[in-house]
Design goal:
Layout: E1 7-10, H1 14-25, E2 32-36, H2 51-55, H3 69-72, E3 75-79, E4 83-87, E5 92-95, E6 100-102, E7 105-108, E8 112-114, E9 127-128, H4 133-145, E10 148-152, H5 156-167, E11 171-175, H6 188-200, E12 204-206, E13 211-217, E14 220-225, E15 230-233, E16 236-238, E17 242-244, H7 247-251, E18 263-265, E19 276-278, E20 283-287, E21 292-294, H8 299-314, E22 325-330, E23 333-339, E24 346-350, E25 362-368, E26 371-378, H9 381-387, H10 399-402, H11 409-421
Helix pairs in contact: 1-8
The structure holds flavin-adenine dinucleotide.
Length: 426
């Protein structure tokens, strides 16, 4: 593609904003248009369930880039502009207001929508979903008026929302249909630890809890539980996952992943149609380290996929994707994860902590066939950074030392690397 070709980015979120910046960084001099359905300039979503809910986001700015960045980089930001159709045969996108935008290459960065619980569609009085800044503002207003909230869904978003609500002094009930928390992301022993901590922080956690019916009432919603009891909820937050926003791509004939539903892209972000790329929560990317396509919903993955897709659009070789990294803040714990969870991984603990300690600090080191492939740090992000150097290496015999939290990890990792470089016995 020539240096002055026109590039259209659909979706003014994390991936869209990062891809535009990367295109300029790589020297693209042509027109860049970002069309975004929301009326806000691209913003970071992680603060929505944390500082924005807690204090309106007064801790800091949540823009992906500073105000003035887009104009300064000559990036056309079209806010409140929903693209309704994509015609790959003629390289043109049509917007809801009738405008046609022509492009040489197009990036779909359309993210996703909160998964809807059919009996409680968006707009149901006293019921909230949380995906956008407007959602967060509405929920914050409602939380300030309510003394109590019921959160449905014990995933990361539900847990963060419950944690923030508890911090604001609301009485919180968290309902999860599975018998443990974060079953796919955390090993069972850590899920159990987290459940204890959630309860120790005053949240009523109901695991293995089915909901048979929802009865709207003037002052809230009555939840009829599968065990025959009922619960009155003056305020309900539904946090049961995300549905990737793929309607445009599907209508344009792009291949979707048969299982996770994301727009299927190769490791460079290329869809099944030449000239169209996808990045972020909407896409299912081939990742060699997973040996298949995965749809990741994380800030870092959106950034990485945007960086790689931007390079591919310009025909530039990009650095390979970094190891998946994810964080969440909840119940006094900054949890960071490096690598990807998988049931075959065996975990060893470095340090232990009571679930009701004020600021617990420990790590879980995950190995598969003796190699370090996953690590979870609770209030120990600095240690996690040290461990990065050992990822992919055989550490089986070193685990007793790595798990001894009396030994500083920084020095240990340095010794292990020195040992690998000149193999005399440690
Ligand atoms: C409340 C919350 C908390 C989170 N916390 C964390 C966290 O702690 N750690 C972490 O790693 N990740 C977290 N995430 C996830 C992370 O924010 C997302 O993975 C990331 O925002 C995905 O970026 P994206 O660009 O793919 O999608 P988005 O940021 O959702 O952007 C997509 C944009 O595309 C627009 N769009 C869609 N269709 C069209 C169309 N047809 N035309 C025009 N525009 C369109 C949408 O309106 C939206 O603005 C959190 C997410 C939420 C919602």
């Amino acid at each position: 593609m020539s240096q002055d070709a026109s590039i259209l980015i659909i979706g003014a979120g994390q991936a869209g904003a990062m891809a535009a910046a990367e295109l300029r960084k790589l020297g693209h001099g042509g027109r860049i248009v970002i069309a975004g359905g929301e009326r806000h300039a691209p913003y970071e979503r992680p603060p929505l369930s944390k500082s924005v809910l807690a204090n309106g986001g007064q801790d800091g700015q949540i823009g992906v880039h500073p105000a003035g960045f887009y104009a300064g980089q000559d990036i056309e930001l079209r806010l409140g502009t929903t693209v309704t159709a994509l015609d790959p045969a003629h390289n043109v996108a049509r917007c809801a207001d009738g405008e046609a935008i022509h492009y040489a290459a197009c990036l779909l960065a359309t993210g996703g929508n909160a998964r809807v619980l059919p009996p409680l569609p968006p707009g149901t009085p006293h019921v909230h979903y949380l995906r956008t800044l407007d959602d967060a503002t509405r929920l914050r207003d409602a939380m300030q008026r309510a003394g109590e909230v019921v959160v449905i869904g014990g995933g990361f978003l539900g847990l963060e929302t419950a944690s923030t609500a508890a911090g604001l002094g609301l009485r919180v009930t968290l309902i999860e249909s599975a018998d443990r928390l974060l079953g796919r992301a955390l090993p069972p022993e850590l899920g159990t630890w987290l459940a204890q901590r959630v309860r120790a922080q005053g949240v009523e956690l109901r695991l293995d809890c089915g909901i048979a019916a929802f009865v709207p009432q003037a002052d809230g919603v009555q939840l009829r539980l599968a065990d025959g009891t009922a619960l009155h909820a003056p305020l309900v937050v539904v946090a049961i996952g995300l549905t990737p926003e793929v309607a445009l791509g599907a209508a344009a004939g792009l291949a979707l992943h048969p299982v996770n539903g994301g727009i299927q892209v190769d490791e460079h972000g290329r869809t099944s149609t030449a000239g169209i790329y996808a990045a972020g929560d909407c896409c299912s990317q081939y990742q060699p380290q997973f040996g298949g396509h995965v749809r990741l919903e994380s800030w870092q993955s959106a950034n990485e996929q945007a960086r790689i897709a931007a390079a591919a659009m310009l025909g530039v070789q990009a650095e390979p994707a970094a190891l998946p990294w994810f964080w969440t803040d909840q119940f006094g714990c900054n949890v960071q994860m490096l690598g990807a969870a998988d049931p075959a991984i065996r975990y060893a603990w470095r340090g232990v902590s009571d679930s009701d300690a004020p600021s617990p600090r420990f790590m879980l080191l995950g190995t598969r066939e003796g190699r370090l492939c996953h690590a979870i740090a609770i209030n120990a992000g600095g240690d996690l950074r040290q461990l990065r150097a050992l990822f992919g290496q055989t550490v089986e015999g070193l685990l007793p030392r790595l798990c001894d939290d009396a030994l500083p990890l920084r020095l240990l990792v340095r010794d292990i690397q020195a040992q690998a470089a000149s193999p005399t016995p440690l």
